[in-house]
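Design job #97: recover the sequence.
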């Protein structure tokens, strides 16, 4: 008999049993309780051990996924903060570029060939405007212009007119003829022909009344008009600078025309509306004599007269762009192709013939000494803006990538929770001694 075989007698017969050379697994015998049944606490302990191990694995994997999502979330917040900062800086640069372009645009004509001929042409243009005013022979503006034409600057020495600064149409100039027509159309003929006085005393001198309250036509501007063959018989506007509330904000730095530093309109995304060119009040060129101390309080015509007439009137390239910006238009707007919004909800439609408009600017007389420095600064501002746009595009790409990764991790986490929910639900095991339902 070999070493790996054993024989035993079963029912009187010899039976050969194979013996594995491997060590036999020895199991502890099951423990029985006093009733002779297997103790169920043994199986319960094994079950608890398995469940505890599975729960720990679930918690560990859950924490890893949550940590990964939190890390991506911090990256998203970082990129969003960077984009917010870059947009704010870009908007500041946009404002500076627009202000600089507005300033340079007033003076570029002086550097062009033939500027002297252009200046002479603009003088003729102003003379044409005066001739159109004179055609309104029975108006206050017509009387004033005729006196000024005949007497020149000495007209201000007349006691009756010493407080009069002039006519609205002649107190400002505009570079572009089309823009001049649009601004004049917006104001209307009556306002363009309005007489401008410095103080209330000037208004009192122009028109007096008798005891019954009727106009005394033998004094004031009525008598002056009659003396030169121009009987004044129509109502006319007079604007008193001393009674106007001036603009109280800041002015654009280093601007020889003292333009107002008005807040640019902003869309909900923080951008300036497409096609926005600026504010009408800053597109009027004013003679240097009237930029300062036009009133007794030291204010100039821009922050008094023209701020009263135009306020925050916005100017756009096209009617379509103007209408798209309706939500940020608060004090009316005009477009270079003829669109006019008088105020919120009030639109001017159709066409009108503009009789009197602002003269064109002469150009050379307003050329600033720092023109080329300003031009260089504009190039530098545009260069900086391009760099910010590049950074903004890069940050937006990184943000989109981070959000994409976050969505992937979130889906993984949701699937993991659904898969691991079975470990959180206690499983029912058959009691020891019970028979489990057989599977059919």
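Job complete. Output follows.
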């Amino acid at each position: 008999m070999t070493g790996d075989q054993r024989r035993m007698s079963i029912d009187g017969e010899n039976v050969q049993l194979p013996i594995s050379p491997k060590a036999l697994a020895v199991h502890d015998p099951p423990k029985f309780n006093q009733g002779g049944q297997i103790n169920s606490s043994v199986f319960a302990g094994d079950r608890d051990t398995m469940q505890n191990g599975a729960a720990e694995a679930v918690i560990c994997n859950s924490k890893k996924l949550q940590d990964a999502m939190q890390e991506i979330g911090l990256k998203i917040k970082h990129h969003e903060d960077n984009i917010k900062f870059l947009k704010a800086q870009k908007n500041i640069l946009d404002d500076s570029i627009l202000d600089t372009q507005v300033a340079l645009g007033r003076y570029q004509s002086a550097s062009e060939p033939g500027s002297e001929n252009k200046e002479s042409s603009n003088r003729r243009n102003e003379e044409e405007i005066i001739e159109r005013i004179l055609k309104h022979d029975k108006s206050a503006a017509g009387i004033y212009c005729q006196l000024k034409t005949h007497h020149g600057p000495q007209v201000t020495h007349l006691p009756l007119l010493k407080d009069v600064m002039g006519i609205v149409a002649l107190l400002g100039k505009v570079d572009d003829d089309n823009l001049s027509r649009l601004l004049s159309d917006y104001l209307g003929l009556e306002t363009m022909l309005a007489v401008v006085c410095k103080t209330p005393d000037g208004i009192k001198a122009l028109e007096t009344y008798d005891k019954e309250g009727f106009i005394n036509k033998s004094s004031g501007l009525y008598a002056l008009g009659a003396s030169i063959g121009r009987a004044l018989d129509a109502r006319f506007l007079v604007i008193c600078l001393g009674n106007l509330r001036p603009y109280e904000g800041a002015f654009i730095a280093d601007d020889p025309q003292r333009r107002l530093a008005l807040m640019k309109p902003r869309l909900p995304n923080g951008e300036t509306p497409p096609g926005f060119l600026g504010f009408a009040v800053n597109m009027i060129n004013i003679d240097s004599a009237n930029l300062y101390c036009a009133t007794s309080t030291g204010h100039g015509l821009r922050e008094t007269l023209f701020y009263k007439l135009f306020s925050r009137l916005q100017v756009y390239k096209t009617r379509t762009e103007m209408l798209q910006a309706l939500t940020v238009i608060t004090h009316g707007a005009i477009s270079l192709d003829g669109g006019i919004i008088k105020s919120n909800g009030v639109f001017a439609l159709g066409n009108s013939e503009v009789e009197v408009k602002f003269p064109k600017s002469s150009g050379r007389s307003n050329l600033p000494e720092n023109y080329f420095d300003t031009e260089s600064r504009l190039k530098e501002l545009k260069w900086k803006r391009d760099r910010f746009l590049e950074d903004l595009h890069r940050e937006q790409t990184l943000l989109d990538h981070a959000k994409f990764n976050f969505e992937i991790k979130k889906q993984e986490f949701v699937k993991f929770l659904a898969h691991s929910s079975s470990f959180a639900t206690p499983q029912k095991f058959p009691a020891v001694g019970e028979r489990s339902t057989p599977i059919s």
